[in-house]
Amino acid sequence: QVQLVEAGGGLVQAGGSLRLSCAASGSIFSIYAMGWYRQAPGKQRELVAAVTSSGRSNYADSVKGRFTISRVNAKNTIYLQMNSLKPEDTAVYYCNAVSPPGPLDDGHSWGQGTQVTVSS
Known about the structure:
mainly beta; single chain
């Protein structure tokens, strides 16, 4: 199993920046991708950004050019640098790790979530 611990959320004014971090522990050798999802009140959880173990990344259209995901393998940690934040970025952000599915699980591990609030 993989455990994920997030940090770095908070309150920021529009146009500001925040950096989220997510540290993985446990069966980290099985992880082949990590990423960030977010869920705003009344909305479905959506993918924000993801990075594979080989370093390939992808982003939601709404955050391209503003957010950057990075991975430090030696620390088993990923980061999400969020710049030019907008009120619509307000959500709970969840770290996600993907491993091969097992007989009783789908291979997805989740962090506890961290609140990001952007004031206008």
